[in-house]
Amino acid sequence: MMTNRSRTYAAVALALAAGSLCAVAPRLLARESSHAEIERGRYLVAAGDCAACHTDEGGQAFAGGRAIPTPFGTIYSTNITPDPETGLGKWTSDDFYRAMHEGIAPGGRHLYPAFPYPWYTKLTRADDDAIKRYLDTLKPVREDNKPTRLPWPFSVREVMAGWNTLYFKEGTFRSNPQKSAEWNLGAYLVEGLGHCGACHTPKNFAGAPKRDQAFQGGYGENWYATSLGGDLRDGLGSWSMQDIVQYLKTGANARAAAFGPMAEVVHDSTQHLDDKDLHAMAVYLKDLPPHESPPAKPAMTAGNGSKEDADRLARGRGIYLDDCAACHMENGEGIAGVFPPLKGNAVVQAKDPETVVHVILSGQKTAVTHDNPTGLAMPAFDWKLGNDEIADLATYLRSAWGNTAGAVSRDKVADTRSTVVAARTK
Amino acid sequence: MATRLPPVDVVLVGFGWTASILGQELTDAGLHVLALERGAFRDTVPDFATTRIQDELRYAVRNELFEEPERETLTFRNSSDQTALPMRHLGSFKPASGAGGAGVHWNGQNWRFLPTDFLQRSHIEQRYGKGFIPADMTIQDWGVTYDDLEPFYDKFEYLCGISGQAGNINGAIQPGGNPFEGPRKRGFPLPPLKRSYGTVLFDKAAKEVGYKPFPCPAANTSKPYRNIYGAQMGQCTFCGYCEWFGCGNYSKSSPQTTVFPVLLRKDNFELRTHADVTRVLRDASGRRATGVLYVDAQGREFEQPADLVILTAFAQHNVHLLLLSGIGKPYDPKTGQGVVGRNYAYQITSSVDVFVNDIVNPFMGAGALGQAIDEFNGDNFDHGPEKFIGGGYVALWTTGGRPILQHHLPKDAPKWGSGWKKAMADNYLRTVSIATHGSVMSYRDAYLDLDPTYRDVYGSPLIRLTFDFHDNEHRMSKFLTDKAALIAKAMKPRAMHVNQREGHYTIVPYQTTHNTGGAIMGTDPRTSVVNRYLQSWDVPNLFVVGSCAFPQNAGYNPTGTVGALTYWAAHAIRTQYLKKPGPLMSA
Fold first, then answer.
1. Buried b (16+ CB within 10 A) or exposed e, B542-573
2. Which domain holds residue B80?
3. What is the complex's ipTM, to 2 decimals?
4. In a domain, B584, yes or no
C-alpha cells in the first residue's frame, strides 16, 4: 500500500518537476489497480481533511450537516457519501472534477467557497478521480442537506459567479521548474489539497484570500491562524524542517502544540500523511519568505516603559505565576514534550492576539494523535479572570522572556469573550 | 422488566484502576469490552482543572469526589452481638464514585508487598511455629508469590511512572533505597521526588537512631513521563492537593492520566456511566454467568449479556454483589464455614506530631512525597520476642499543608480565639507528623455479610461490616508507634505528641481507605472465593478483582499490589482462559 502510494507520488513529483502539467498523471495511474486508486483516494481524502467539515459532531462520517460559520452567515457542509438522492451517488467523475476544479456542482449550481475549491482547483484530474473513487466506496447515508442560512444577496448562489470572476483563479497546479521536486510536491500539498491558506492567509472584505499576502496569518471564527512565513517571531522562521514534520505528524514539537482548529487538522489529516509528504510540505513552508508586517509596537518592559506599563506588567506577571506557571513554568519555557513554551511562541506573539486571548478564556485541548494520545488540556479561565486581568496577562505574555508583540486591550478581551464564551455555552 | 441489550465479550463492573487495566489488556486481545460505571465521567480537564481543584472545602470537607452514602452505604458494628447501623456519612474510608474510581483521589503511595507477605501463614509457622498464630486468626497464604507478581508489579509501576529509588535489584542492595523490599528486575521509571525539608529532618533523625530511611515510591511524577501505552504526564508541581483531589497537572498516576487516553478511543471498548450494577446473572446450572443487571439514571433496568463478567468495583462492593447474586457460599462466623465475606481486614494507623524549630513549608507537598523506614514491616524483624504478627512502615509524609484539615497544634493550644490564632501562626510552618501504617491480620470474627434490616435504594440488603481491632494489632501498632516516637525525639523537637490508636475500632474518623478481603484468593475453594488467578471457583467465567482478594492486609498501601494482581489476572485471561474458557485451577 505504502509502496503504491509512494510510487504514485513519485510519478506526480517527477511530472511536476519536469514542468509539465499533470495531464501525464492519469495515464500513469491508469496502470494502477483500482485498489491502488481507492487507497490513494483515501489518503488524499485525509490529506484534504474532508471529514473535518463533512462530518457533523456525532453524525455519520461524510454525511455532512456540520455548521460552518462564516462572516456572512452559516453554511452547512453537504453529504458526500454515495447516496443517490442526498449524496454524490449520481455524480459522475466529471461532475466531481468540476466541483473541485471550478466550484460548480451539477446543474450549474455555484458552491460557496467555504468549500475550498479556490485551493482544490490545483488538484490533478487523477487525484480528483481517486478521491471520487474512494468516496464511492463509502456506505451511502441518506441525509438531506441543510439549507444555508445566508442573508440576501449571499443567499443567491449566482452571486458567486461574480465572486469567482473577481477573486477565483481556476487552474491545476503548475510546478516551478526553478525549484526541486520535493519543493513542488510540498507546494502542491500546501496550496492545493492541504488548503492551508484557507485559515493562514488573510481574507478581504468579501472573504476572498489576499493572494499577495499568502500564508501571512489569517483570522476566522475567533482564531488567528499564525503566519506560516519565515518570520522568526511570529512565523515558522525559527522552526527547523524536522520541527514542522514533527508538529504535523504528532501534533506537538518542542516549540508548540496544536490546539483548536489545528488540532482537528492534525488529528484528521496531517498525522496520516507519509513522512515524505510532510517533509515536502516542510521544504515548501520553510521557503516562504518572512512578511514585512508593520513592526510590532515596542514591547512593554518594566525598565523602559511608563509607570502605568510597569504596573500592568507586574499585575500580569502575578496572574501568570498564580495561574499559568505550574505548567508553562516561571521562565516561560514549558515542559519539553508536555506543556508548550510561551517564550518565543508564535501564537503568543501573533500580530492579532485573538488566539492567545481565546485560549486563556476557553482553555484548549492539544491534538490527539497516534504518537501523542493524551490530548493534554489547558483549563478555561473565563470563570476566574476578568477582562482587565486577561488583558494584563496577555500583555505580559507578549512582553516577557524576550517576546515582542503589542499590548492587549481590555476591549479586545471583552470582544473575544462575548463570542467565545457564548459559543462555548451554547 | 429489564430490557435485554446486545451481548458483549466482557463486562466490567465499575471503572476504576482495575477495570481500566483490564479494559486496556482485553481490548488489546481483540475482545469487545464494556465497562459499567455507577457514577459520572470525569477527566483532568475540566473536572480536576488546576487552580479550581485546590478547593479543600469542596472536595476534602464536602466530599465531592466520593461515593454518596445516601445512594450506597454499609452498616457497621464492632462485633456479632451488636446491631449494625448504617453509615450516613463517610468516615474511616472514602470509596469513590465516578470514572477512575479511587484512583482519582488517592495520594499515590505505591508499594510492593514483601515476599513473605504472600506466604503469611506458612512463613510464620515455619519461622515461629504453628502455636505462634492465635486460634482465631484466619490468615492464609495468597496462592501467588512475590516472584509470580514481580513482572506485574513492574508493569504497573511503568504504567504509572513511579518515582522512587530501588532498594534491591536482582538481589543486589542499592544504596539509598529500601533494603528490605523484594528483588525487582529493574529500577523505578523515574527518580525520587525532590525532598521536602520535613523528610530531610526525618531522614537525618532515622539514621541517627540506626535505621535505613529511603524515599517512598510515589505515583507523583518527578519528571515528565510517557508511559507504556504512550500516555503523557507532566511533572508534579508540589501543590499539595493529592489526597481527596484529582490532579490538574497530569502528574498523579490515575486511570485518567495513564489509561483513558488510549482505552477510551478504541472501537472495541465502551463505557456506560450512571449504570449501577445490581446483580450478576447466571444460567440455570448456576455455573455460568450470563451477564449483569443494571439500573441507569432514569431508573430503567437493563440486562447486559456477556461471555465474561469481571467485578472491578471497590472491595466491599464486589463482595456485596457476590452476596446479592448468591454466588459462592456466604461466610458463617459461627461455624467458620463458607467463604464470601470472610477475612475482611483493614489497617491500623497512628502518628506522632512533631513541633520543630525550623520552618518546613508543609504546603509544598505531594501525596506520596515521603521518607520511610521499613525495618518493622512484615517479617523484616524477629517477632519472637514481640509475640505479635505483622508490622508496618514508619514514614514522614509531606502531603500538603491545607488550611482546614492539615494543621497540627500542641495539645495545650487554645481551641478558639486569639490564643488559637497565635498557636496556629506559631506552629503551622513548624510542624511535621510521623505516621505508622500497620497491617491488620484476618480473624474469624471480622467479616462482611448482608444486613438483615437496612436496604439500599433498590430494596436490596446493604452490606454489613463486622470488625474490631484485636490485641495483636494494638500491640503491633504500639510497637510501631514507639519506633516513630524514637525518631521524633531524635529530631529534637520543641514538643511532640503521640497519637496512639487505642480501644475499639471506630468507623467515624478517617483513617485509611485500605479495605481488604471478603472475596479472597487462594488455592482451596473451602477457604477462598477466587483461585490464584482471581477466577471464581463457582462460576468460571466470573473474575473478581481488587483488594477484596487479599487474604489479610499488609503494612503497606494496597494500590501497587492491586495493580499487580490486575495485570496478573489479565495475563491469565489472555494467555490461558481465552484459549480454553473454563476453570484455570482444579478445585
1. bbbbbbbbbbbbbbbbbbbbbbbbbbbbbebb
2. 3-577
3. 0.91
4. no
